[in-house]
């Protein structure tokens, strides 16, 4: 079974509107971390936001927020007020074993969602 | 501060050759990990190094190897190249302190084409 599932291969949004990118995950670990990355056409992976499994509050970073629903094992990314520069691939990723002293830096990525922001 | 630097950015090799890719992490970062990105398989973890020791290894054949130097710079090597090795190879560095949020900072990648 896939550990990270992103069910939306592509999404379109109008500039200045909000958009939600879906991500569900599968793990039996109690301690894990969830990440979202943006990959523009240049190839570089840009870190957007992080949510730890023990964090009770949803993470926010500027226009990005993570809608963390632990019981549903979902970690959706919400981008508010979309901008043309937000057009890119977006990857959800998980790191298991967060309580192993930070020694496990292996990320498992989803297949990604290609977001296109229309003017 | 300077980001993660990967060299070369683009390269073309033929089947059977070998290739070495280099990664210079952000200053002060001691963990370096490598990922392979292909259209079919997506992003897959190759290995991770910390203080010159390989701590984690993904499910790749022995043709894929790596090492880390005392200055935290890392290299990965792929021997006996196959067509399927064509990919974007991404390097990421992090502080690797205990219980850090663990953001991984990625380089722009080395795009390998095997003919």
Structural commentary:
- The complex is a heterodimer of chains A (119) and B (115).
- Chain A has 119 residues and is mainly beta.
- Chain A is 0% helix and 49% strand.
- In chain A, strands 2, 5, 6, 10, 11 and 12 form a 6-stranded mixed β-sheet that branches.
- In chain A, strand 8 and strand 9 form a beta hairpin.
- With 115 residues, chain B is mainly beta.
- In chain B, the strands form 2 sheets. In chain B, strands 2, 4, 5, 6, 9, 10 and 11 form a 7-stranded mixed β-sheet that branches.
- The model of chain B has no long low-confidence stretch (mean pLDDT 91).
- The chains are: A mainly beta (119), B mainly beta (115).
- The A-B interface holds A 33, 35, 37, 42-47, 50, 52, 91, 93, 95, 98-99, 101-112 and B 31, 33, 35, 42-45, 48, 50, 55-56, 58, 88, 90, 92, 94, 96-109, 111.
Fill in the keyword field for this structure.
heterodimer, A: 119 residues, mainly beta, 12 strands, 49% strand, B: 115 residues, four-stranded antiparallel sheet, 11 strands
Give a short overview.
The complex is a heterodimer of chains A (119) and B (115). By secondary structure, chain A is an all-beta fold. Helix content of chain A is 0%, strand content 49%.
User: Helical amount among residues of chain B, as a percent range?
Assistant: under 10%
pLDDT averaged residue by residue of chain B: 91
Which overall shape of chain B is indicated by the principal axes computed on the Cα atoms?
globular
| Count of distinct strands of chain A | 12
Which band does the percent of strand residues of chain B land in? over 45%
Uncertain residue segments of chain A: none
Q: What gyration radius of chain A follows from the Cα positions, in whole Å?
A: 14 Å
């Amino acid at each position: 079974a896939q550990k990270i599932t992103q069910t939306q291969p592509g999404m379109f949004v109008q500039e200045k509107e909000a958009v939600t990118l879906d991500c569900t995950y599968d793990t039996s670990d109690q301690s894990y971390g969830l990440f979202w990355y943006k990959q523009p056409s240049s190839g570089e992976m840009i870190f957007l936001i992080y949510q730890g499994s023990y964090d009770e509050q949803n993470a926010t970073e500027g226009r990005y927020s993570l809608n963390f629903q632990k019981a549903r094992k979902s970690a959706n990314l919400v981008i508010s007020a979309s901008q043309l520069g937000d057009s890119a691939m977006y990857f959800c990723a998980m790191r298991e074993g967060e309580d192993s002293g930070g020694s496990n830096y292996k990320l498992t990525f989803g297949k990604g969602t290609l977001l296109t922001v229309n003017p | 501060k300077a980001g993660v630097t990967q060299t070369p950015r683009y390269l073309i090799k033929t089947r059977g050759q070998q290739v070495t890719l280099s990664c210079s992490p952000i200053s002060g970062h001691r963990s370096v990990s490598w990922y392979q990105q292909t259209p079919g398989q997506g992003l897959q973890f190759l290995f991770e190094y910390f203080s010159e020791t390989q701590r984690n290894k993904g499910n790749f054949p022995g043709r894929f190897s790596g090492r880390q130097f005392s200055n935290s710079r890392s290299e990965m090597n792929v021997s006996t190249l196959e067509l399927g090795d064509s990919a974007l190879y991404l390097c990421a560095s992090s502080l690797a302190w205990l219980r850090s949020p663990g953001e991984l900072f990625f380089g722009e990648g080395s795009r390998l084409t095997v003919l």
